[in-house]
């Protein structure tokens, strides 16, 4: 803690062999960051510039990929600076802000995936009612809810943590994730209870809704002709792949970050890097290659 400026600094202790491999880390992560920004931005550009992609499903995909760009920009620039710095530190207020942005965007992804699931349900199970149900106003409401509800929930937790007393100033991570809770002397009961409620509202309930919706879709398509089955597989499979990978990484983040035991440092680093790599890198490829209309425009572009 800097007494003169009255600023609390936190040290990232999640790095491995920093002095030996700092330039290797920097080169790899810089390359990955450029790939993430460019690949996601290309899909967003295609969706925005082609009128036949101005449909609810593609708008939700664009929102999802925009989340990825913002999420990566919250993490990677600070990581790159740390690789070239003698000390890997961050002010506690900046750490809380990074935590807030990361989990607001992360939780909004579940809401966007839920909106996609509902869109696919209406398109496949109620095709005649689709134009009247999935109007522009409906899509706008879904987008506002997807970004506003998680942001407001995580804001309450961040404000609660800002008022907590700290007994440790070392994070077992390379960025400000759930391990930030381990810095507190005593975890506030209010923040803990609200965190559990938020986890149910922002993660569990959307996942249950998605599973229920896709179950209904599969039941309907199972009784339908091959053409409808093919259409359902083409549009639903990418969403399911994204949901499964993101859910698995999310569960890891919650469990590992809250564990007080000494987990091997290199294993913790590898798993943490997977959270920052898998979704941002694979999402544009999943949607770019698996979604037929987007794939067509990609081929024309290149």
TrEMBL record:
One of its GO terms (cellular component) is plasma membrane. GO terms for molecular function: G protein-coupled receptor activity; odorant binding; olfactory receptor activity. Residues 39-287 form the G-protein coupled receptors family 1 profile domain. Its main location: membrane. Keywords: Cell membrane, Disulfide bond, G-protein coupled receptor, Glycoprotein, Membrane, Olfaction, Receptor, Sensory transduction, Transducer, Transmembrane, Transmembrane helix. It is found in: Cell membrane. It is a multi-pass membrane protein. It holds the Pfam family 7tm_4. The chain crosses the membrane at residues 23-48, 57-77, 97-118, 139-162, 196-215, 236-257, 269-289. Belongs to the G-protein coupled receptor 1 family. This is Olfactory receptor. The gene is TAAR1.
């Amino acid at each position: 803690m800097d007494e003169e400026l009255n600023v609390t600094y936190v040290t990232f202790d999640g790095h491995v062999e920093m002095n030996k491999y700092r330039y290797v880390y920097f080169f790899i992560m810089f390359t990955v960051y450029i790939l993430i920004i460019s690949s996601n931005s290309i899909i967003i550009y295609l969706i925005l510039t082609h009128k036949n992609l101005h449909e609810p499903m593609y708008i939700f995909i664009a929102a999802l990929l925009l989340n990825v760009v913002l999420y990566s920009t919250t993490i990677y620039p600070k990581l790159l600076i740390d690789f070239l710095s003698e000390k890997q530190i961050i002010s506690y207020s900046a750490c809380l802000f990074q935590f807030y942005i990361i989990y607001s965007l992360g939780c909004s992804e579940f809401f966007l995936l839920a909106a996609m699931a509902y869109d696919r349900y209406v398109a496949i199970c109620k095709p005649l009612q689709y134009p009247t149900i999935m109007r522009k106003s409906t899509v706008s409401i879904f987008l506002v809810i997807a970004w506003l509800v998680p942001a407001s929930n995580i804001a309450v937790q961040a404000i609660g943590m800002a008022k907590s007393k700290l007994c440790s100033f070392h994070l077992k991570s390379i960025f400000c994730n759930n391990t930030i809770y381990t810095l507190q002397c005593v975890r506030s009961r209010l923040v803990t209870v609200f965190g559990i409620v938020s986890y149910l509202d922002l993660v569990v309930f959307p996942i249950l809704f998605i599973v229920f919706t896709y179950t209904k879709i599969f039941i309907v398509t199972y009784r339908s002709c091959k053409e409808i089955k093919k259409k359902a597989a083409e549009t639903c499979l990418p969403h399911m792949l994204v949901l499964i990978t993101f859910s698995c990484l999310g569960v890891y983040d919650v469990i590992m970050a809250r564990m007080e035991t000494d987990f091997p440092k290199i294993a913790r680093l590898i798993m943490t890097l997977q959270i920052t790599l898998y979704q941002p890198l694979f999402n544009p490829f999943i949607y770019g290659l698996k979604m037929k209309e987007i794939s067509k425009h990609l081929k024309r572009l290149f």
